Amino acid sequence: ASPLIGEISAWPGPWPEVLADAVLAALARSASLTNLPTGTRQLVSAAARGLPATGPRDYAGWLIRFADTHPQPWSAALRSAATTIIHRRAFLEDLRRP
What we know:
By secondary structure, the chain is mostly helical. It is 68% helix and 0% strand. The chain is built from 5 helices and no strands. Helix 2 (17-29) runs antiparallel to helix 3 (38-50). It is globular, with a radius of gyration of 13 Å.
């Protein structure tokens, strides 16, 4: 895998919006791929942990919409990443309740 993917994966989350948007753009460029390269697979995994779970943008929703509109054999990986973000969001909401 590329050193860049390793650096992104190691970046603590939640990621700043500029990094989150760059990761989504990289995933969008992979839309036509029928097989998910190792680097992109690692990027999807990192996105599950690094994309913001709360805030003004719904990154989980983006991943689900992307998987639905660009069905590929690897769309399940995008949905899995979205589910992880949704669980992180619920966990954070529970922690914030008095």
